[in-house]
TrEMBL record:
Record lineage: Bacteria, Bacillati, Bacillota, Bacilli, Bacillales
SUPFAM superfamilies cross-referenced by the UniProt entry: Actin-like ATPase domain
Location, primary (coarse class): cytoplasm
Cofactor binding mode and count: Binds 1 Fe(2+) ion per subunit.
Keyword DNA-binding: no
Stated name of the protein: tRNA N6-adenosine threonylcarbamoyltransferase
Length: 334
């Protein structure tokens, strides 16, 4: 498998992205076309609008990714695509485009799980070392995953209601902050103090599951109560208090998983890994506990196709191909 070139396609939500990755480790191009501007005025991703935007952009972005990588189509070895989970209409555009390319170029078609992609974003920085624990925190997922070797994912815990990023976005929306709210709350937190007492859902002792809907409701009740009394709640202090409640649980449970499995590597993945508070707290704790922490650079934290191509390369090495009946699967399990 010397010098394998894999083209990856990611359209699971509101980013149209195409990348070319060499040997599963080197990003030759990673074009990301965000639809944020379109969805912002609706306060969230509108699935129909997302699909339509993907259709309009995908062909141009494929050409752009090849041009930026300085790679011609005939030099590609495989086409990797996010099969799920995600918005079905959005996923379909990527899957249909990948199938067309694989058919036209007579190349293997490699379906990739979106979360596997987020984890493999780290592989683009430094090769993964096993065994490891991955904390995957995005708009759709909050999961703790144990990996003993390439492509072997064991889920140790997950959210029972809202994902971490979803909680950030919903609370931000309630506070009147623009979409997506995660980065806004992150920014405001840095200027605020943790002064509001908000609940942490620890669940059963030793549990590695998460729950954020109670916290979200508490924030809303706090704001409504203040409004009734004619009091004002500072956005910065509320952001800091909410973020602290989320991070306390994320950090504690990630290290609980590390301890339970006796691993030395902790990996952070997904859009919420962009959170500066989370990064700082995990780094501090990792140093205290003598654990190696891996966090992808910001541009590889949020949805992108390079991470799909990276995971896709290992699936390609293992011959995990799909035929042209491949369908998008919005509820795909890891
Ligand atoms: O991985 P991603 O791009 O898309 C999904 O697969 O969901 O993650 C997007 C999520 C959004 O909920 C967004 O608010 C959150 O990641 N996010 C953040 C930050 N940057 C992005 N949440 C907290 N702090 C941030 N700095
Ligand atoms: Zn994602």
């Amino acid at each position: 498998h010397k010098n394998s070139l894999v083209l990856g396609i990611e359209t699971s939500c509101d980013e149209t992205s195409v990348a070319v990755v060499k040997n599963g480790t080197k990003v030759l191009s990673n074009v990301i076309s965000s639809q944020m501007d379109v969805h912002r005025r609706f306060g969230g991703v509108v699935p129909e609008v997302a699909s339509r935007r993907h259709v309009e952009r995908i062909t141009v972005i494929i050409e752009q990714a090849l041009a930026e990588a300085n790679v011609t189509k005939d030099r590609l070895d495989a086409i990797a695509v996010t099969q799920g989970p995600g918005l079905v209409g959005a996923l379909l555009i990527g899957v249909a485009s990948a199938k067309a390319l694989a058919y036209a170029l007579n190349l293997p078609l490699v379906p990739v799980h979106h979360i596997a992609g987020h984890i493999y974003a780290n592989h683009l920085v430094t090769p993964l070392e096993f065994p490891l624990i991955a904390l995957v925190v995005s708009g759709g997922h909050t999961e703790l995953i144990y990996m003993e070797s390439h492509l072997h994912f064991v889920r140790l815990g997950q959210t029972r209601d809202d994902a971490a990023g979803e909680a950030f976005d919903k609370v931000a929306r309630f506070m009147g902050l623009p979409y997506p709210g995660g980065p806004q709350i992150d920014r405001l937190s840095a200027q605020g103090k943790v002064i509001y007492d908000l609940p942490r859902a620890w669940l059963e002792p030793e549990s590695l599951d998460f729950s954020f809907s109670g916290l979200k409701s508490s924030v809303m009740q706090l704001m409504q109560k203040a409004e009734r009394k004619g009091e004002t709640i500072g956005q910065a202090d509320l952001s800091a208090s909410f973020q602290a409640a989320v991070l306390d649980v994320l950090v504690e449970k990630a290290f609980r998983a590390v301890k339970q499995k006796g691993v030395k590597q902790l990996l952070l993945a997904g859009g919420v890994s962009a959170n500066s508070g989370l990064r700082v707290r995990l780094m501090k704790r990792a140093e205290e506990e003598g654990i190696t922490l891996r966090i992808p650079p910001l541009e590889l934290c949020t949805d992108n196709a390079a991470m799909i191509a990276a995971a896709g390369t290992y699936l390609y090495y293992e011959g995990k191909f799909a035929d042209l009946t491949l369908n998008a699967n919005p509820g795909l399990s890891l």
